[in-house]
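User: Hi! I have a protein structure encoded as tokens and I'd like to know what sequence might fold into it. I'm fairly new to this, so please keep things simple.
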């Protein structure tokens, strides 16, 4: 589902890299291209057709580009991403923040141990309800409810702790920790989020627990990012903090994500449609390529499929090699390479066997 703006460009390169990795394993994968987004809305009045939604429900995973067209606005409850999140119950939005060798961070104090943490953003409630329950009174007052439920909080917190078990811990000290990021000191709903977090945390005595207010976290992400491992937070806070985190590791062009539920998964770069550079073949495709790697890692874990896991490993290792080499990079990273050239370079590394040893 390539979507709008730069979406088709980055999904094109991501698909190229995925196919290069699939050529190295015994795995049968079928791709179905589905139209969605605001260009579709301009023509038809819908951002996501029923037929497309039916096809998505039957799929194993969704590879998603970007949405948004300047001057085109559909009702909030018709957002294609909102429909997919609600319809497929994609409650965990997982956004890794990782500094790769060869990429310079604007943070002067980053040591050789670097930055490597992941944000678990609750994805089904919070302040993002896509028009549901929101209203405006006499053009004078706008009301948007903040929804924090026990079910929604328990499952995102548990997902965060399960991730911490699998990870190596924070780069600075290799301590496995999960931080609850909230504003429990100011908002009752966030105090409830913390209460449920603490209840779930008791099931994971080997994981260090931290409580950090959201405003304080913005400071920690700048001053001591190496001490961070897994963060779990409400929907809007997770959206904002992950953008800040991406700026510390090279920008949105290097920021992948996955949105998963108990049955379905959607994988996309966290950058938007970037209409100002769409069609110019200069957008950085690495975030989309890494999102493709996350897709196959998830498929491998979910299905106990070694071939899918191998695809993920080959893609990430090839990205690491290309970034460390520094010769092929787009303008956002200080280079002059095109979107196509970056995709070609990663695919060529995979063809050489990178990631197979």
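Assistant: Happy to help. Inverse folding works backwards from shape to sequence: for each of the 357 positions I chose a residue that suits the local structure. Here it is:
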């Amino acid at each position: 589902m390539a979507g709008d703006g730069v979406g088709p460009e980055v999904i094109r390169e991501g698909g190229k890299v995925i196919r290069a990795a699939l050529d190295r394993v015994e795995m049968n994968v079928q791709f179905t291209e589905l139209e969605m987004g605001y260009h579709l809305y301009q023509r038809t009045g819908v951002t996501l057709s029923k037929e497309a939604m039916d096809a998505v429900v039957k799929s194993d995973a969704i590879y998603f580009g970007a949405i948004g067209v300047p001057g085109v606005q559909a009702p909030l409850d018709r957002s294609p991403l909102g429909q997919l999140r609600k319809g497929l119950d994609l409650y965990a939005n997982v956004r890794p923040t990782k500094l790769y060798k060869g990429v310079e961070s604007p943070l002067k104090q980053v040591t050789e141990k670097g930055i490597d943490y992941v944000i678990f953003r609750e994805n089904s409630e919070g302040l993002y309800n896509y028009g549901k329950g929101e209203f405006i009174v006499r053009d004078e007052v706008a009301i948007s409810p903040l929804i924090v439920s026990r079910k929604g909080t328990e499952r995102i917190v548990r997902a965060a702790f399960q991730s911490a078990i699998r990870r190596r811990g924070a780069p600075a000290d290799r301590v496995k920790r999960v931080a609850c990021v909230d504003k429990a000191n100011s908002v009752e709903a966030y105090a409830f989020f913390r209460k449920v977090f603490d209840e779930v945390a008791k099931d994971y005595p080997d994981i260090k627990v931290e409580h950090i207010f959201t405003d304080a976290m913005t400071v920690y992400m700048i001053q001591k990012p190496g001490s961070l491992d897994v963060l779990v937070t409400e929907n809007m806070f997770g959206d904002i903090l992950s953008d800040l985190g991406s700026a510390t590791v090279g920008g949105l062009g290097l920021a992948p994500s996955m949105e998963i539920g108990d049955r379905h998964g959607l994988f996309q770069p966290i950058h938007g449609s970037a209409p100002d550079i769409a069609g110019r073949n200069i957008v950085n495709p690495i975030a989309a390529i890494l999102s493709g790697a996350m897709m196959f890692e998830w498929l491998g874990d979910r299905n106990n499929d070694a071939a899918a896991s191998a695809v993920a490993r080959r893609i990430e290792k090839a990205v690491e090699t290309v970034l460390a080499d520094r010769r092929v990079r787009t303008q956002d990273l200080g280079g002059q390479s095109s979107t196509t050239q970056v995709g070609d370079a990663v695919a060529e590394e995979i063809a050489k066997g990178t990631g197979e040893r």
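A useful reference point when you look it over: The mean pLDDT is 95. Feel free to ask if any position seems puzzling.
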